[in-house]
Design a protein that fits this description.
6 helices
Length: about 170
């Protein structure tokens, strides 16, 4: 399938969302955007990282509900510009946030499934850091790894970034 990944901070206007949607696949759909019988459509995914930063979440509502987006008509003569609905390919929207409590309820309600992932424990992070040390040919004491794991707040990406900073410091 087609995966379009973006950050919420990049979706400032409806045009930004339209640009992301145009990257999706129409394979398996007819000219009206309906899935064709007997043809397996390609699965489309729109992944929005840090979705809690989306300034105008309402631009996603009709896309998530009806696979349409309202665009300004080219025939508009005055400032009240006519809106016309354009179909989007069928898609699954995945919103990623470490601040789900900041999501507006109308947006959160439109997601069919909501998953809460657990942060890594310090012992799991120490294990991850040990493997990273092997890959980086870096020697670190168990105390150093424990300190890095504690500082990384349960996030392996942060733990490895801190480990790389320690390595850079050692080199310098």
């Amino acid at each position: 399938g087609v995966v379009v990944s973006t950050y919420a901070s990049l979706l400032k206007t409806q045009q930004d969302l339209i640009r992301a949607l145009w990257q999706l696949s129409w394979e398996g759909c007819d000219e009206h955007g309906q899935m064709m019988e007997g043809v397996k459509p390609r699965q489309n995914f729109l992944i929005i990282d840090e979705i809690h930063l989306l300034k105008r979440p309402e631009i996603l509502y009709e896309v998530m509900e009806d696979f349409v987006i309202s665009v300004k008509s080219q025939d508009a003569w005055d400032s009240s510009e006519l809106l016309e609905k354009q179909r989007t390919p069928p898609l699954t929207v995945i919103g990623i946030s470490n601040r789900a409590g900041e999501l507006p309820t109308p947006l959160l309600d439109r997601f069919k499934y909501v998953f809460h992932l657990e942060l890594y424990s310090e012992s799991q992070l120490i294990e991850i850091l040990s493997h990273a040390c092997e890959k980086l040919s870096l020697q670190a004491s168990s105390l150093a790894l424990a300190m890095i794991a504690h500082a990384s707040k349960g996030v392996p990406r942060l733990a490895i970034a801190y480990l790389e900073r320690v390595q850079n410091y050692q080199v310098v």
